[in-house]
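Forum: Protein Structure Q&A
Topic: Joint prediction for protein chains with partners

I've read a bunch of threads here and the consensus seems to be that you should model interacting components together rather than docking separate models afterwards. I'd like to see that in practice. Below is the full input, 552 residues plus whatever partners are listed. Could one of the regulars post the assembled result?
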Amino acid sequence: MSWNELWELLVGTFQTTGFPTLSWQHIVMWAVGCFFLYMAIAKNFEPLLLLPIGFGIFLVNFPNTPLMGTTDGHPQLLQFFYKYGIIWEVIPCLIFLGLGAMTDFEPLISNPKMLLIGAGAQLGVFVTFTGTILLGFSIKEAASVGIIGGADGPTTIYLTAKLAPHLLSANALAAYSYMSLVPIIQAPIMRLMTNDKERQIKMRIIRKISPIEKVLFPLICGGIIALLVPAVMPLMGMLMFGNLMRVSGVVRRLTETAGNQLMDIVTIFLGLSVGASMQAHVFLTYKPLTVFGLGLLDFVVCTMGGILTVKVINLVAKEKINPLIGNSGVSALPMAPRLSQIIGQQYNKGNYLLMHAMAACLAGSIASPAAAGMLLSMFE
Amino acid sequence: MKKMIYTVFVSMFLAVALSSAPIWAQSAPLPEKQWEAPVMPGGTIVKSEKKVVYIEYNLPYDQVLTWYKEALKTHRDPVYNIEWTKYKDRKDQMYIEEQGSAKWHSIGISKNDGAKTNVTIVQDNWTWIFSTLLIRFAGVFAVLCILWILLNINSYVMKKYFPRDEAKAEAK
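Posted by a regular:
Agreed with the consensus. Here's the joint model:
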């Protein structure tokens, strides 16, 4: 072998490594990935999601890695998860199936008035929509960014995958990040918008409901959503199916699988796929970065919307509602209700708001897909 | 004096006529674009308002539609290839809605039987955005209010016709 041949061989080998095409954008994305890993591992912030997301970001931001492209027309590994899981809308719906199997709607069924708080908390979705358009986003992008405020990860992913897939990673990350920052974002707003008298309002103990009512709930709720907002039935249908399995009590094994093993499997694919969609050339542009700012505004207005709705209800209702549960209208389970309980107890030790706040939160988990359905219907 | 009054009246009339909202400008040349929307050549502006332009073509509907479809083919996100137009086939017209961030809101192509086709180009407007958002926000309330009412009815029926179940639940 001549020196020339040896040199060419070395150069050829070097060309197959990642070094020749490595850019500063890749390095920035490694830092972003490592930041999410740090938040998950060291700070325990939503580790179930932020860990796979962080590692997904880290993995795909190396040049020449056969992960998010296609080989001979076939999707590569992470592209496969992303395409069939997210773009085909399978994963968000399976997450909703698991959520349904894990959720007890009793607090909401026994106090259906709370549904209005869930609706009021969608205010931010529509306010942010307007702000997003002002910043030069398209209408489809604005709709997908708006839904972040509902703090409903699967709904955000579902809507974004349909309307603006290029914002998927930014939207999903913003939704999950703000969800984990509930105590930091919501607590000052709750204190600011309520007075001492309102914070001490005691709420009646929730009535127990019969098993038949529990079984009827997924049928009634599913039926109403199917009739009024059919666009969002893949999500709501799965949520209600999961819940029916739970409350029927006759398919215990299926319920456990949907709520545990299936949920875990789907979460792995969801996290990795979302992370993998954050490639440097897609993420390091002004739009995904602006989404984080808009998402925060959205979350703040949604929280305010929930509290304002309680105040409006209190103007006409005989039985007053503690406005501290208004923040739970966004569907950030279980952080938002827990925060209502903690702040409520700071002002009145005998005040137990948790179950009422849970009801508002469950209402949010129905209102958020309903809002997504309303936005989707704009484009159909 | 008479001359002066006459001149003032004539100039006032001209000022009002030229600045009034609907401008009847049959002979006005067609621009290539109106609020960034493509304009098919060969037509006549029948009426032009602040936010709407009406153009008439001596061509059949299909021909005008084909031209607009071709012209709007490239109206999509250049990076992510997302379509920015939505075609809504209505009874009386083909309604093309802009879903990107251009300055036009819609192009309506009337479905006339004859050889004439009217095209209406509407400028993007906040009235539409605000009203559609308001309706949708109210829609979320409406959906949840209906659910609330039905859950209340359900609870009433359960209490009245299945009191045993209720009592059992309370005992638990």
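Strands of chain B lie at 33-34, 37-38, 44-48, 52-57, 85-89, 93-98, 104-110, 117-123.
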